[in-house]
Amino acid sequence: MIDKVFNKTISKQFEFDEEVASVFDDMLDRSVPFYKQMQKLSISFANNFLEDGSNVYDLGCSTASTLIELSKSSKYNLNLVGIDNSNAMLERASKKAKAFGVEIKLLNADIFDVDLKDAKVVFSNYTLQFIRPLNREKLVKKIYDSLEDGGVFIFSEKLVSKNSFLNKQFIDEYYSFKKTQGYSEFEISQKREALENVLIPYTEDENKKMIEDAGFKHCETVFKWVNFALFIAIK
Q1: Residue 84 assigned ligand-binding role
Q2: If you count Cβ atoms within 10 Å of the first and of the last residue's Cβ in the chain, which end, N or C, has fewer?
Q3: 61 in a labelled binding site
Q4: CATH architecture of 18-234
């Protein structure tokens, strides 16, 4: 379905409810620059660290696209676990996984309540930015502790710039991108208002410091478009 969630006046803050879930794949493709390319890169890097029986977690898995694509591309038999606190998202994830013949354990839970065990790869695609900063650092430490030595945390995030002038340019460039994807000025402004105080982005340096503070020995930016970036952190 085509994303028309914000073509009307909003009445609440952004949430991953049934209305958003029904159009989420289209929303991602049209709202996140180079989303599919970053997803493909994530999967390519992940495959370099995997082996038969590896545990792979996707935190905030939404409709499970990343895990499904990983399963389709990997030569290994993997234990795939998708975690999300939106039942509407997980219902679609379950249907998609079944359609593609991919076995995924889908958990409707708060990430902090799930016991992550012996992970080889942990994905988090535009999830950390929705977690309050104090809890964000705790979650990254939990991810670090869950990974086997040599395991990787692969995550994508929206960014802000420390430079206010550049940050304004970042926003303008991003809104220009959204207009090319068919979103109107009204839809763009409505979504921005809905996300106010819900999505809290860090700078690129703040993301890397958070990773290093958790104990990871290396963190690299492997793709960046203006204010969107893909990172890989190695334990």
Answers
A1: yes
A2: N
A3: yes
A4: 3-Layer(aba) Sandwich (3.40)
